[in-house]
Amino acid sequence: EQKQDLNGINVLITAGPTVEEIDPVRYLTNRSSGKMGYSLAQEAADRGANVTLISGPTKLAHPTNVTVIDIMSAKDLQQKVESKFAQNDFVIMAAAVSDFHVKTIADQKIKKNGKNLQLDLVANPDILAGLGRIKVHQRLVGFAAETQNLLENGNKKLKEKNLDMLVLNDVSRSDIGFNSSENEVRLLQPEKEPKLLKKNTKENIANEILDQLLIL
Ligand code: PMT
C-alpha cells in the first residue's frame, strides 16, 4: 500500500521536449523522452497529490490520475505554466525547454537552392527564472542538463533562478539522463551539501526527489 503523504498537495510538473517550428515540415527539438517528468507525475499522484502535467510531445502513455496538458513550443509551455503557477504548491520543471525559437516561421516549405541557409534563432525567455522571481509559497524545483563543470553550473542555476532545489543531470553519460530508464542525479539546495541519488530507476529517483521536497 502506497503512503499518501502528498495528500492535498497541488503539484505542477513539466516534462518532455519542446518543439520550435521552422516551416510546415521542419522543427527544432531535443532528446528528452519525458520519462523523468512522467515518473515524477505518476509517483506524486500515487502518493495522493493533485498533479497537473504539462507535456511536450512524447511516446509515453499518460500517467493515471493526472491532468495532462499538451504543449509544443516553449511559448506554449510558458503560457500554461504561468496560468497554473499560483494554485500549485510544488512546481517541478523537468521539461527540456528550447533556449531559442526561429524568428520567422515560414508559411511554406523552405526550398533548397544549392546554397547554405541561415536560420535566425531568437532567445526564449527563461521560464523557470521568471517563476523564481514571482514565487510566494511555492517550492520551486529546476532540472539542469549539463555535460561539463556540473556542480559549478548547477549551483549557478540554483542561485540565479531562486530555486529551492535543483536536480543536476549529467547528460554526457548515455546510461542515464536523456531517454534512458535509469538516472543518477545530484540534488542541490541552498546552504546544503549536494545529495547524490545513486543510479536507480526514474520511478525511484522521482520518489526520492519528492521525499526531499516534503522535508524542505
Ligand atoms: O525526459 P528524459 O528523457 O527522461 O530526460 C530527463 C532530462 C535529462 C531531460 C531531465 O531530467 C532534465 O534534465 N531536464 C531539464 C533539461 C534542461 O532544459 O536543462 P537546462 O539546464 O537547459 O535548463 C535548466 C532549467 O531551466 C530546467 O528546469 C528547464 O526546464 C528550465 N528552462 C530552460 C530553458 C528555458 N528557456 N526555460 C526554462 O524554464
Automatic annotation (TrEMBL):
One of the GO biological process terms: pantothenate catabolic process
Protein name per its UniProtKB record: Coenzyme A biosynthesis bifunctional protein CoaBC
Pathway: Cofactor biosynthesis; coenzyme A biosynthesis; CoA from (R)-pantothenate: step 3/5; Cofactor biosynthesis; coenzyme A biosynthesis; CoA from (R)-pantothenate: step 2/5
Cellular component terms per the entry's GO annotation: phosphopantothenoylcysteine decarboxylase complex
Note accompanying the cofactor annotation: Binds 1 FMN per subunit.
Keywords attached to this entry: Decarboxylase, Flavoprotein, FMN, Ligase, Lyase, Magnesium, Metal-binding, Multifunctional enzyme
Positions of the UniProt region annotated as Phosphopantothenate--cysteine ligase: 11-216
